[in-house]
Amino acid sequence: xxxxxxxxxxxxxxxxxxxxxxxxxxxxxxxxxxxxxxxxxxxxxxxxxxxxxxxxxxxxxxxxxxxxxxxxxxxxxxxxxxxxxxxxxxxxxxxxxxxxxxxxxxxxxxxxxxxxxxxxxxxxxxxxxxxxxxxxxxxxxxxxxxxxxxxxxxxxxxxxxxxxxxxxxxxxxxxxxxxxxxxxxxxxxxxxxxxxxxxxxxxxxxxxxxxxxxxxxxxxxxxxxxxxxxxxxxxxxxxxxxxxxxxxxxxxxxxxxxxxxxxxxxxxxxxxxxxxxxxxxxxxxxxxxxxxx
Length: 293
Ligand SMILES: [Ca+2]
Ligand SMILES: [Ca+2]
Known about the structure:
Helix content is 10%, strand content 45%. The chain is built from two helices and 21 strands.
């Protein structure tokens, strides 16, 4: 009997679909447009340099993309290399010598001074490193007043935003790293990665799950978007002419990474968030120093 009702239900469903199609064909009804789903397209591959293999900070100056790889097994003075990628063909055009920038968890471009600025993160949480983008050499370091794990320079505001270690809060600095205020955010247990900006909003990227929280430049929450990639570790976020890009670390290969363009990201206040995988889930909330990864 159950089959009978299923057949009847399917019959009426088909009739309804046919009827709708006829109305659309006659121009009486307009088809319901499908919302495009968030999608991800790989644009560049980041090859490892032997043990210097894990993608960390990344950013753009609008002409080139810069990505840092580190040796995650090094016990001290972690060696890293910085690669420069031409956005016209998405090929690596230049690679730095070995540099020492600790975990190099995030990076941004300071357009006022034409410098790449790296958040060293563990173990020197208050250190930022300045790198010359023309020859990929270190120009100096600075100690700032806060322990941070992420950084972005917003040229229109002439200020820096940085993710404060051990929290999801974001500190705002003026051009000279004088503190202007703190954006308080609720805690989460995701891995803290990167800050980016398209000049209009701030985007705070986390891994496990790969998720982006958006804020206006005053720090008011503007929803979140879950990335479609569940396999790889989202490490850094940046924008080129309004388009969103994410630098990923390839977890399964334990070597190298890639850059992906993210299209149709919709920021919502109530979309479902996938559970973190067991890989880095802890029974008690870990500190960001443990969790910057
Ligand atoms: Ca950044
Ligand atoms: Ca990282």
